[in-house]
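I'll show a record.
***
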Amino acid sequence: MHNIYMKNIISLLMGGLGGYVFYIQNFPLPWMLGSFFISLLISIKYSYFFVDNRLRKVALPILGVLIGSSFTPDILTRIYTWPKGILLIVMYTLIVTVISYIYYRKFAKWDKVTALFSAPPGGLAELVFIGTDAGADERKMILVHSLRIALVVILSALIMKFYFNTEFTRIVIKNPPFLDIRIIDWCIMIFCAVVGGVLGLKFKLPGGALFGALVLSATFHLFSITEVKPPVFIVATAQVILGTSLGVRFHGITAYEFKNTITHGLVMAIVMITTALAVAEIFFIYVGMDPRALYLSMAPGGFTEMLILSLAIGVEAAFIATCHCIRIFLILLCVPLASYFNKNKQG
């Protein structure tokens, strides 16, 4: 037990060091990307690094509260423009899932179940859990989805900075000084994080604890009950936990796994990213939305990571959160059904 605690402490300290290096070098999303990079590089060779999944469950509600605070009353005046964007996200999800499935079957030569659960642009934890029960190769699924998320986080930050020429704000949180935050506001934030996180896990909502906290936080902020966001140091700590936990997933990769699974996953991740960018650039006028927001709503990264990036550049976090939730719901509805019918057909 003592060894497990030490692994967590050392892993997070190294992740924090990486985040600090990225911070002083003015990288985008420094705390998350810095902690991810250093934990990834070290974990590939050394299996010592480890982050308890319970820490991720603590960090996710914090970001849920932060993201929920983006649902301000003025959003209600813009919601009429969302249906077109949501329809576009649904079409994108279905098309890239079919393309990915065909690729994994025809080129990677994976079995049908593994290809099916590896194809969708989202839902890592949910798909791995359901896919394993359905008979898919768990190792392939984890590697493909983890690589997709990692690559999308990295490339999306670069796309925002260099393609769209966007300056990052380091997720500047406009809050009163730490000691000046009212007790009632602290109580509301803690309530949203704890109760929302528990409900999100209990009812197995997409995004789990994050989404549950997001919904409660959004409700309080939409009705102007509070306008306060979590303090910067708390958000940075949560990002270090999430970035480090993402990087340590890659420990123990063999040469064959890297050559096969990682290569195929890389191909499809790039296809998904370029398709999302192309669709955003072509249809943003029709949808009537900032192309950056449209891209981030389709980008096949993690629910958490894409929303953090939207906060870092200050675009439509509420729309992006809504689209990612709908996409995950769609994936979790269609993929298990497709697997079920395919199994019955074979039987």
The chain has a mean pLDDT of 85. The CA atoms of residues 105 and 112 lie 7 Å apart.
